[in-house]
Amino acid sequence: MVDLNGRKDYNMTGIYNAVSTSWGMEKELEQIHRKDVIRVGVDSTISKLLWRRLQKMVDAFYSEEDFQFSKIDRSVGNSMLGEHSLDIYIGYGMDEEYREEDIEEFTLSEQPIGVYVGKDTTIHSSGTVVLEELKGYVRYGTRAYPCSVVEDLDKTFYDSCRNICYVDNAETMKIKVEFNDGYAFVDSYYFSQCSGEIYLLSDWKCPQCMKVYYRRNSKKKKLGDVLAKLKQIAEET
pLDDT-based confidence at 28, cuts 50/70/90? Predict the structure, then answer.
């Protein structure tokens, strides 16, 4: 079609429809891709040592677009996995209220328990301590971090460490330990320690298990392969 001035009058409706169709297809493909993204929640107490291993896995076998990682606390990780908002949660325990038949787990790491202290602690050590040396110091713990609230009926443990000053979360626990010359029990290898130090206990063995929790019946194609790669990481630890 030509207008009175001799200029072509393009069919803008046709062009608009073509662009809209193309845009719609792109959005649909994007949504399909997003549905296959593996959503991974990592407990906020876990240090960069694990994050570095996860990044190596992504770099070697996948792309960044295949994953959505989140650093979250235990209660959020539990609820998000329970509500199908996560495909994988890596942490230290799953509350019974969120456990369902299709949620499974395997151990990613098993490490000796450690004693977290502040940088100015008066619990002097060359890297290891015994339970008796903790007597008289305030023990801090939080139910949000199960490693910190472990118990034992052993008399030496009971006499030295049975009392726990409970706080709301792991970050508060670290601050209380550092400001008040106290201590907390932690995963000796993977705990994100900030400015403090971690001593090993020489006379008490209580391994701390970091686990991978996931849904068995997920329809996401890559999930099985990702779980297999995580099991390889577990074997290397």
Answer: very low
